[in-house]
Write a structure and sequence with these properties.
12 strands, 9-stranded mixed sheet, globular, 15 helices
């Protein structure tokens, strides 16, 4: 049967690629060094394929279609963020077998033979895969466009994947690309729930997953942990395997975690942590008490805001639109079918006003970020 020889969960923050000057370079290095460390594990374990379980930040499917889980079957995986691009080969034979095996187990799975992936894949391609000649199998999980799959549904997908690969001879590596606490594009952007991160890391180190799997998508949204859904798919494949912390960095807007599950990390290995974690047992949920029964930060995008979200998506993904928007934003906004309120919000600085008039927070933030990077690029 297929053997999982290496497994990790890891941050994919776009700042690791763009390295903006306002970020602490030592903390960025702590995260990328840990990603490269797991890359060296691939050298030691020699997998035949790397299954990358990532998320869609609305770069791939966004609002034209919102599948819960999507397997990419193209001959190559194309990932990009701004002007950084990578193409890596896909293990299509194994990916097709995986698709059929999962569907045979009564688990609906979308597939795409043409998909452009975002930084959730580009970051591990860059820092984990590097120049290694290991084909990948990209799997996307919807983590930001409600309704979302539950942790237990993601875990069930992982079990179906393991079953689908049971009769295969390949050696498999798995990377869950996502996490930890952050609220991109929202008013809580600079207030991550670090204490919840520490509880998650404690439970993972002990191989205790029941309470994590009992969380709801609404609860994950409240503490900025929706990207843990990729972890739960991987854990469905691995069972109750404990994880070892390689690195945890506290950034102003994001908890950067890198955790290795397989092979086990030697007891003498010390994690790279930028400041001490809480001493002693961390209370459940890090002491956090959930208060909401509905999504707070990443709500269902109402159809009335589609035109605004479409324009933001074009600014992010289409270089010509982005350049024109940077040169003459009023002209671009004037041609779009926006309400006066939406147009005014788009022309103002910041993204809080945009989300208030219906913009999805990820699109609002990313459009501002890529526009700023475009504006500061020397040839502009």
């Amino acid at each position: 049967m297929a053997e999982v020889v290496a497994a990790a969960a890891a941050v994919h923050a776009p700042q690791l690629l763009s390295r903006p000057p306002h970020e602490d370079p030592a903390k960025l290095d702590g995260s990328t060094d840990a990603l490269r460390r797991f890359g060296r594990v691939l050298d030691e374990t020699a997998p035949d394929a790397l299954l990358v379980i990532g998320i869609d930040h609305l770069e791939t499917f966004w609002l034209e279609a919102v599948p819960a889980f999507t397997l990419v079957l193209s001959p190559q995986a194309h990932a990009h963020y701004m002007r950084k691009r990578r193409r890596v080969p896909v293990h299509t034979e194994l990916a097709v077998r995986l698709l059929h095996g999962v569907v045979e187990r009564d688990f609906d799975l979308t597939y795409s033979q043409q998909a452009t992936l975002g930084h959730a894949f580009l970051t591990p391609f860059e820092f984990v895969l590097g120049d290694r000649d290991i084909p990948v199998i990209p799997l996307l999980v919807n983590a930001y466009l409600p309704p979302l799959p539950s942790p237990r549904r993601c875990h069930a997908l992982g079990r179906a994947i393991a079953g689908a690969l049971a009769d295969r001879p390949e050696r498999i590596a798995v990377l869950a690309s996502g996490g930890m606490s952050h609220f991109p594009g929202t008013a809580r952007y600079t207030d991550p729930q670090f204490s919840f991160d520490e509880w998650v890391l404690q439970e993972v180190a002990a191989g205790r997953y029941r309470e994590l799997l009992d969380l709801t998508p609404v609860q994950l949204d409240e503490v900025g942990e929706s990207e843990l859904l990729t972890w739960f798919v991987m854990l469905g494949m691995l069972g109750d395997t404990p994880g070892s912390l390689l690195s945890y960095q506290h950034l102003s807007h994001h908890g950067h975690g890198v955790v290795q599950f397989l092979p086990p990390v030697s007891p003498g290995s010390r994690p790279d942590v930028d400041r001490p974690l809480t001493a002693g047992p961390v209370p459940r949920y890090g002491g956090y008490e959930f208060t909401s029964s509905e999504f707070i930060y990443y709500r269902f995008p109402e159809p009335s805001s589609f035109a605004l979200n479409r324009l933001l998506h074009q600014v992010i993904t289409d270089e010509a639109t982005r350049r024109e928007f940077v040169r003459d934003p009023a002209a671009v906004v004037g041609r779009a079918a926006l309400t006066a309120e939406q147009g005014a919000a788009l022309l103002r600085d910041g993204f809080d006003g945009l989300t208030a008039v219906g913009a999805h927070p990820l699109l609002a933030l990313s459009a501002r970020q890529v526009s700023e990077l475009e504006r500061n690029t020397p040839e502009n």
